[in-house]
Amino acid sequence: MNAVTSALADGAVITRRNLLKIKRVPDVLVFSTLSPIMFVLLFAYVFGSAIQVPGVNYREFLMAGIFVQTVVFGATWTGASLAEDLQKGIIDRFRTLPMSGSAVLLGRTAADVGINLVTFVVMAATGLLVGWRIRSSPAEAILAVLLLLTFAYAISWIMAVVGLSVRTPEVVNNASFIVIFPLTFIANTFVPTGNLPTVVKAIAEWNPVSAVTQAARELFGNTNPAVPVPDTWALRHPVIYSLIWSGAALAVFMPLAIHQYRRAASR
Question: What is the mean pLDDT of residues 113-141?
Answer without folding.
Answer: 90
